[in-house]
């Protein structure tokens, strides 16, 4: 019997997590021979609902589940964790601007990043699902200086899957035959679904579709799919988001020969600004991802990629003061008047709260 793998899920009583947890427990993530320990995090008002999820998990009698930990303590939730699905996030409220949303989520993902740094396995793999996912992932990463930045990712696999499904439907092809889809950029309305390298069997996708459909139907469809789902069902996508999160993490952990879209820390590939979480085409093996290099890009693609890069840089600017507090502890030391760790931490959270007011 393998040693149980510790998996953290935040926002664990929410809709996406409800679709996610039972599939992970059944072995769809790490396989039918990998026992797991589920470490489920919720805010205090959600603990009763989370206890109901735990009862249902128990009633399923999943043989792989060795322990279920339900908690509102962030450090306990990430204790020795090897995989983390950061699902819980502050949703945009009425009248809330994107900057307000970014700053509200900064406090959440700062705290979780710190807990990952202090409590989790140093080899942890993290996917951020909660939106705005790319910049939330950047915030968490910046708060975990002892963890390799490559171990923080943002989910654009849902967009990847949406594009793959749309192309399959348009061409009457099996989904499995549509390969080399790329999602560039941000998980937002500026993301760029790129079909210029997509193959359907041995044919280029552009031999089977027309450019007008691609530019005027596919791209806006994928960009606006989330809003379409909310309009149709009165709630955001949950099952498809959970499915994409499992796809992302399973391929990352176990490897795949297929191209996958992942939001990762930019290293400057394809001229994208460094130090933002940007979606690239990746290939996964041996528990790591690598950006697929040297793809030819036309002017249309470059323009669309730049639009999404620009938005991510604007998001980063919106939280610039918060990032400066993380990266400049001397400022916090001056603010607190003391240099010990507890006072630095308290001063940091005072600074965050002041900026959010």
Structural notes for this entry:
The protein is α/β, with parallel strands linked by helices. The protein contains 13 helices and 14 strands. The protein has helices spanning 15-25, 47-60, 74-77, 98-119, 133-142, 157-171, 211-223, 225-233, 239-254, 299-318, 320-327, 329-336, 341-356, and strands at residues 5-10, 36-41, 65-71, 83-86, 125-128, 152-154, 178-179, 182-184, 192-194, 199-200, 203-204, 256-265, 277-285, 288-291. The termini are far apart. Residues 332-357 have low confidence and may be disordered.
Structure, briefly:
This protein is an alpha/beta fold. It has helices spanning 15-25, 47-60, 74-77, 98-119, 133-142, 157-171, 211-223, 225-233, 239-254, 299-318, 320-327, 329-336, 341-356; strands at residues 5-10, 36-41, 65-71, 83-86, 125-128, 152-154, 178-179, 182-184, 192-194, 199-200, 203-204, 256-265, 277-285, 288-291.
Side-by-side strand order of the widest sheet? 3-2-1-4-5-6
- The parts where pLDDT drops under 50 for at least 5 residues are 332-357
Q: Please, how many helices?
A: 13
**Portion in helices:** 40-55%
The Rg value, from CA coordinates, equals 20 Å
Strand tally, please? Answer: 14
Beta content comes to: 15-25%
Global mean pLDDT: 91
Q: Which sequence of SSEs, written as H and E, runs from N to C? A: EHEHEHEHEHEHEEEEEHHHEEEHHHH
Largest sheet: 6 strands, parallel
| Overall geometric form | globular
Quaternary arrangement of the chains shown? single chain
Structural class category: alpha/beta
Intertermini distance: 51 Å
